[in-house]
Amino acid sequence: MPVRFAFGQMDAAERRHDGPIPPADPAAPPSGRARARLFQRLAAEQREDISRRRQCLTVPTLADDAISPRDQARLRFYRDQGAAWAALLAK
Fold this sequence. Notes:
The chain is mostly helical. 68% of the residues lie in helices and 0% in strands. α2 packs antiparallel against α4. The radius of gyration is 16 Å and the shape is elongated. The relative contact order is 0.19. Residues 1-33 are annotated as: Disordered.
């Protein structure tokens, strides 16, 4: 599976501060292992958030919930990216 970088799609949803994005250090790019761990950690956090949200919802509100599909799309993105980076490391 080729690694696809869909960060352009996720930037709006994941921006967590109001200041400018600091420039990356081109001399020290993050390793593949660090990227794989990052996405695995983000997927674990997203799973916890989804489970906490589902526990708070009732059956009638779950059917009309617009946030659950968005959260599941994020989880799918994090899992796909984590699996892709892990597969690259296994080669």
